[in-house]
């Protein structure tokens, strides 16, 4: 157990958790008029030497921003917005991880407007839908992205202003505002809007399994819950340099940025996309102590780990989010990175990681970990809201007045209502996942749509989305277990499993597999991989059919698109 971990003794921390103690650790008292920008940036700006952000560009350019500089620049941007939007209006970004992106986010919150962002991997249709759905007023972008934004605005008439991050006017269209031109001319002083804890702050869109993306609205008080994650799961400490590779186009990026700044921590950001050689060089050049990324990135580093052979690493903690990590990746992290990669779980709706592994707690490879102190989470029957005993599959659910839980789906009250189920007041609770000292708190459960089970020690084990579970010959088979086993075979770079219709068994498990460079597809390799899974798991869980592919279809966040694979399996011509 690390001696200096912020969370010492998980069970004691759960029983004794209080917001007052957390606030005391941060030397912070939640104000009556709460504004996220002030609490994360301005509060640290008196120390003009305290670094908020280290930036490394794709062309090697570097920039360092102190909290004082970030505060001043965001003041200028807030003054610009004073003439463009009212409090509560929506301001969106569409740009890479550059300093101006972070300044625009803080300045928007400082103005009292609602911040949203769209990842650059989305095209005009995805951008237009989000801007139009929430009647966004302003878009901040770059010259390289201006044409894409222009196409999106044809279907987003609510947007009145486009701000382009351009030093020399390149990329501006008639009516556009030059970011540097207007910001540098603006006043450097600004008093953050006196928003309250229940005022709107962030709006991020999440894609579901069915229907269009939904806008997930978070309030200003969101920052208090995020602070708990950065304290206990991320384990931020004095002197850390934190690299959260997530883009501000996803809520995870905002969580790890603003949550870290709440604690006065220094962040590192890299403008470019994933590249094993580039990442190895950055980990060697910068004294990064905490790394937060996604499973795909860790898997790709694993298959290219020769790039890390000569790197001098300063890591003391690593985390992952998005999909469960296999035991093989965890073991690789310990051997190559020198740290255990700690899996975490959360959703845009939860506004945070709600189930995680902690530095002071034994990690069970493949497990999501346990609920964060202060959070009531469990596995429940989605029809009745009853808690399920260890080993029984149900939906991951959360309830209670947790600060960073979402307020609503934007202008979709029926969608908001549909994801809740009333739980019984009584009944036995899994003691290992108990949150409150009194043992019970009645109320509605938020149903995540993610299936899992707990074990006797209270660890959560992910089993897939509710519509991903495979039923073959009456057996319920979770995709992740099979995919994890596939990943342990030396030939498998990545694997995904889906159900395939079968007359005899109803469905069988079919695997789509990409191979490492040392292997070529063959029937003998199919049999070898099948035998491996049989021995590792069970005879009924092995993939009865394996198809080798060059790559797996993925979402813009790097998650495997099993829906596309299912469609391909049911109709091979699609």
Q: Can you characterise this structure?
A:
The structure is a single chain. The protein has 574 residues and is of the alpha/beta class. It folds into three domains: 1-30 and 221-466, ANL, N-terminal domain (Rossmann fold, 3-Layer(aba) Sandwich), CATH 3.40.50; 67-200 and 210-219, Rossmann fold (3-Layer(aba) Sandwich); 468-570, 2-Layer Sandwich (GMP Synthetase, Chain A, domain 3), CATH 3.30.300. It has 17 helices and 27 strands. It has a nine-stranded mixed beta sheet with strand order 2-1-11-10-12-13-14-15-16. The chain has a five-stranded parallel beta sheet with strand order 4-3-5-6-7. Helix 12 (295-303) links the parallel strand 12 and strand 13 (317-320). Helix 4 (67-82) crosses helix 5 and helix 9 (222-232) packs across helix 10. The radius of gyration is 24 Å and the shape is globular. The chain starts with 9 loop residues before the first helix and ends with a helix. Residues 426-442 have low confidence and may be disordered.
């Amino acid at each position: 157990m690390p001696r200096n971990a912020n969370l010492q003794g998980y069970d004691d921390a759960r029983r004794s958790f209080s917001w007052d103690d957390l606030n005391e650790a941060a030397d912070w008292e939640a104000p009556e008029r709460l504004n996220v920008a002030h609490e994360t940036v301005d509060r640290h700006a008196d120390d003009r030497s305290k670094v908020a952000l280290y930036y490394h560009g794709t062309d090697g350019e570097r920039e360092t921003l102190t909290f004082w500089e970030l505060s001043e620049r965001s003041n200028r941007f807030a003054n610009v917005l004073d003439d463009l939007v009212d409090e509560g209006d929506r301001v969106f970004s569409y740009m890479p991880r550059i300093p101006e992106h972070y300044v625009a986010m803080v300045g928007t919150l400082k103005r009292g407007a609602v911040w949203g962002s769209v990842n650059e991997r989305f095209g005009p249709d995805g951008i237009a839908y989000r801007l139009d759905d929430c009647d966004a007023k302003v878009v901040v972008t770059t010259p390289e992205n201006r044409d894409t934004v222009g196409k999106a605005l044809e279907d987003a008439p609510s947007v009145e202003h486009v701000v382009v991050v351009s030093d020399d006017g390149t990329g501006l269209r008639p009516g556009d505002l030059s970011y540097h031109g207007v910001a540098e001319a603006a006043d450097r002083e600004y008093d953050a809007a006196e928003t309250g804890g229940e005022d709107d702050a962030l709006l991020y869109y999440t894609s579901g399994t069915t229907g269009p993306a939904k806008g997930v609205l978070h309030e200003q008080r969101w920052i208090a819950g995020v602070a708990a994650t950065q304290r206990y799961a991320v384990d931020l400490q004095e002197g850390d340099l934190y690299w959260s590779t997530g883009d501000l186009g996803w809520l995870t990026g905002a969580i790890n940025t603003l949550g870290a700044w709440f604690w006065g921590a220094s962040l590192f950001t890299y403008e470019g996309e994933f590249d094993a050689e580039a990442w190895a060089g950055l980990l060697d050049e910068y004294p990064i102590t905490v790394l937060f990324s996604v499973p795909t990135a860790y898997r790709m580093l694993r298959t290219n780990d020769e790039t890390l052979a000569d790197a001098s690493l300063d890591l003391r903690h690593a985390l992952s989010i998005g999909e469960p990590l296999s035991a093989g990746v965890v073991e690789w992290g310990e051997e190559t990175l020198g740290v255990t990669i700690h899996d975490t779980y959360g959703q845009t709706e939860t506004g945070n990681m709600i189930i995680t592994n902690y530095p002071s707690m034994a990690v069970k490879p493949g497990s999501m970990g346990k609920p964060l102190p202060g959070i009531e989470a469990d596995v429940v029957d989605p029809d009745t809201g009853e808690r399920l005993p260890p080993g029984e599959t149900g939906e991951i659910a959360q309830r209670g007045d947790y600060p960073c839980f979402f307020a609503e789906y934007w202008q979709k009250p029926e969608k908001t209502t549909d994801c809740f189920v009333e739980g019984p007041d009584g009944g036995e609770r899994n003691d290992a996942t108990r949150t409150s000292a009194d043992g019970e708190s009645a109320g509605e459960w938020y149903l995540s749509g993610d299936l899992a089970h707990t074990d006797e020690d209270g660890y959560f084990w992910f089993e897939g989305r509710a519509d991903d579970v495979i039923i073959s010959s009456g057996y319920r088979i979770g995709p992740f277990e099979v995919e994890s086993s596939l990943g342990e075979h030396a030939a498998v770079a990545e694997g995904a499993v889906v159900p395939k219709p079968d007359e005899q068994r109803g469905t069988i498990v079919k695997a789509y597999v990409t191979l490492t460079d040392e292997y070529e597809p063959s029937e003998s390799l199919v049999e070898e991989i099948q035998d491996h899974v049989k021995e590792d798991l069970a005879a009924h869980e092995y993939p009865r059919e394996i198809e080798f592919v060059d790559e797996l279809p993925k979402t813009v966040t790097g998650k495997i698109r099993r829906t596309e694979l299912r469609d391909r399996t049911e109709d091979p011509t699609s």
